[in-house]
Amino acid sequence: MPFHELQKSLNDVVELSELAEEESDEELDAEIAKELQSFTQKLEKLELRMMLNGQNDSCNAYLNIHAGAGGTESCDWASMLLRMYSMWAEKNNFSMETIDLLPGEEAGVKRVATIIKGSFAYGYLKSEIGAHRLVRISPFDSNSRRHTSFAAVDVIPEIDTEIDIEINEKDLKIDTYRSSGAGGQHVNKTSSAVRITYIPTGIIVQCQNDRSQHKNRATAMKMLKSKLYQIKEKEREKEFSNAYDEKGDIAWGHQIRSYVLQPYTMIKDLRTGAETGKAQSFLDGEIDDFLTSYLKWKIGK
């Protein structure tokens, strides 16, 4: 139990402190500092876990990234975000699997759908829903001018398939196509990829990660049910917004976070006010402080 581990860590600090009062030992002082740091980290982890008390916070998460307007620039930015979340997942011992991917024409990705599996994956990542804005000197501009790019991130909990979500087959438009992602010659010879459009809302889900069309369809249906369930819950709580509307603008006025790499480095969350000048570390997956800031901000609203 996390609380018991925290209590044990505190007891270790107290015992070492009492021993330090009796002896003057620099090595003992260093040990106390180490144990105190360990206690603080465990306390922060427990505090964060207590904030993850939403109905679906403990679920795995579908994480989708869509490049905004801007061609190659935005596609490259979408791939940078994919890398950031991949590194974050690895650092936190989560697994991440690509479900669907459409590469950019020159670089990056136009869209990518993934599933991140691990305890409380959705609870941690729900803060990432929205448009992310990047300002940098473009590596694709021969004149080295600054460019602004946008990409949209959507996060959906993987809902238990036993939950009853009624879907009428007549409301579904199902298309099959050849995979555009990795997989060698086989995926290019067969139309195993599946795209499902839910006609009443226009929601589109796609899957191409398996050679079996049947398995891809099952995964896509699971994603659709999860998305419809999440929308239903948002409506019930009267908090439904266009966070899940893929037709929403991925542009100015809609961003949740700004990433500035030139002429200075600064990443700032426009909701919570959290910011850091360590842009490269952040893009390397060190995003936990921002996730925590969002959870605290959400509680205080």
Summarize the structure.
With 301 residues, this protein is of the alpha+beta class. The chain has 8 helices and 11 strands.
Explain what this protein looks like in three dimensions.
This protein is α+β, with helices and mostly antiparallel strands and 301 residues long. The chain has three domains: 2-51; 61-162 and 248-300, Alpha-Beta Plaits; 169-236, Double Stranded RNA Binding Domain (2-Layer Sandwich). It is 40% helix and 25% strand. The strands form two sheets. The protein has an eight-stranded mixed β-sheet with strand order 2-3-1-5-4-9-10-11. A three-stranded antiparallel β-sheet has the order 6-7-8, with helices on one face. β2 (95-103) and β3 (109-117) form a beta hairpin. α1 (2-22) packs antiparallel against α2. The longest helix has 26 residues, at 26-51. 30% of the residues are buried. Mean pLDDT is 82; it is low at 182-188 and 238-248.
